[in-house]
Please model this.
Amino acid sequence: MIEEQGRVLAISGRFAEVQTQRRGLCGLCAVQGACGTALLGRLLGRRPVQFRALNQAHARVGDRVLIGISEEGLLAAASAAYLGPILALIAGALLGEALGDPFADVASLFGAGLGFTLAIVWLRGYSEAAALDPGRQPVVLRRLESNST
Model:
């Protein structure tokens, strides 16, 4: 379980609207901040992130909470978001090249665009279905003491 601290902003039925502060991961790897991710972090700043989480701890508005998401759910979502479109783009390009004999370059480009578009449409449906799966949603694990930082 990947865990993060946050604050409850609102309650809606079984769900809590939670705000967390985006943390930098610099210092955790051998590069120590000399990478593209560190540069992006410096450019974008540390803005708060808001999302909906299952409120299993029965937290109230204003409570500091510990939220978590399963590693499997996060890996599945990341794989779908990153691998799905790129694999569909490559498959579409290869199929277009194979079927577009006299104009293979144009057909390859069209196939890549079509494959990518279909992957984005699929990804939208996938994310809507995943939002209903409790195993892939963030969960409020417990309330934290108000004086802890």
